[in-house]
Amino acid sequence: MLVKQELINKIKDYFELNIYETKVWLALLGKGTASAGEIAEISGVPRSRTYDVLESLEKKGFAIVKIGKPVRYLGVKPRMILEKLKNDTRRNAEERIVGLSNIKSTDEFIKLEEIYKTGVIPIKGEDLTAALQGKSNISNHLREVLQNAEKEVIICTNANEIKLKLKLFQQTFSNLNKANIKINIALSGDEALIKQLEQIFKIKIKKIKLDTKFFIVDRKEMLFYLSKGDENKDIAIWLNSEFFAQAFASLFEQAIGSKK
Predict the structure, then answer these.
(1) φ and ψ at 222, to 5 degrees?
(2) Which of 43, 117, 206, 240 could form a disulfide with 186 if both were Cys (CB 3.0 to 4.6 A apart)?
(3) Secondary structure of 54-80 in the HEC alphabet?
(4) In terms of CATH, what superfamily is 126-256?
(5) CA–CA distance, 183 with 238 (Å, rounded to integer)
(6) CATH topology for 5-78?
(7) What confidence score (pLDDT) does residue 259 get?
(8) Distance between CA 117 and CA 62 in Å, rounded?
(9) Which residues, 6+ apart, have CB-to-CB distance to 146 below 8 Å?
């Protein structure tokens, strides 16, 4: 069986196999059922290594040993392998999430929190500033900032940005509403989408023409975007300055014609 090296390399990467495992699995798929000797001849893998490779593929679920003499092997269908890998990945991710959640209750995590608090105390509030890069990093910090709100949040962004992070904002707005925290939103973008978001969140949204993105919490903290880039190039600044946040909130209210 002649298989192009390019295909072998791609299959190897897709299914996280080594070169020998890939060649043997492809040989099994092409032959249907075969002995170790036949597989070595078809795949080009040294016979001395074929048995180890077959054992490895069997453990990973890519091959099945047929009972009988001589021992023969059967390649598992690619579709079955793909479903197995998807299920394994999903299960591993769920286990990882549970493991990460459990870290909060450990003594080590409590000590980490204490170290962080000890380090922050000597710093003046107005000096707390951070540059954030990448959509994921910014979203995680934004979630944390919004969840810590005590009185009010001001959100000015575009409708598509909210739509892309719908799950994040649905949960956040739900928590804020339960805590009786005022939510003031102004969005640019498609008017029909803005109306749709109003119905989803059950919050009045002001439509604006200015395409900008910033978030103000309790008129003390502010997170604003410096650029609009791809997944890795988005940049935002988090600023903990009551003077700056209040000034920006006042400008925002003047722009949309509202009052505090």
Answers:
(1) -150, 140
(2) 206
(3) HHHHHHHCCEEEECCCCCEEEECCHHH
(4) Endonuclease Chain A (3.30.870.10)
(5) 19
(6) Arc Repressor Mutant, subunit A (1.10.10)
(7) 45
(8) 50
(9) 153, 172, 176, 215, 217
| Tokens 């001589």 belong to residue | 70
Q: How far apart are CA 120 and CA 117, in angstroms?
A: 5
Q: Which of 21-30, 49-58, 119-128, 233-242 has the lowest mean pLDDT?
A: 119-128
Ranges for all domains in the chain classified under CATH 3.30.870.10: 126-256
pLDDT of amino acid 255: 73
Confidence category of residue 3, pLDDT binned at 50, 70, 90: low
Is the peptide bond prior to 70 cis by the omega test (within 30 degrees of 0)?
Answer: yes
137 vs 83: CA distance, rounded Å: 31
Of 52-56, 76-80, 130-134, 186-190, the least confident: 130-134
* Sequence ranges of the chain with CATH classification 1.10.10.10: 5-78
Both tokens of residue 168? 């994040």
CA 14 from chain centre, in angstroms, equals 20
pLDDT band of 244, cuts 50, 70, 90: confident
In whole angstroms, give the CA distance from residue 253 to residue 260.
7
Is the pLDDT confidence value at 127 over 60? no
Among 51, 35, 49, 41, CA closest to 2: 41
What is the reported pTM?
A: 0.54
Is 215:154 a contact under the CB 8 Å cutoff? yes
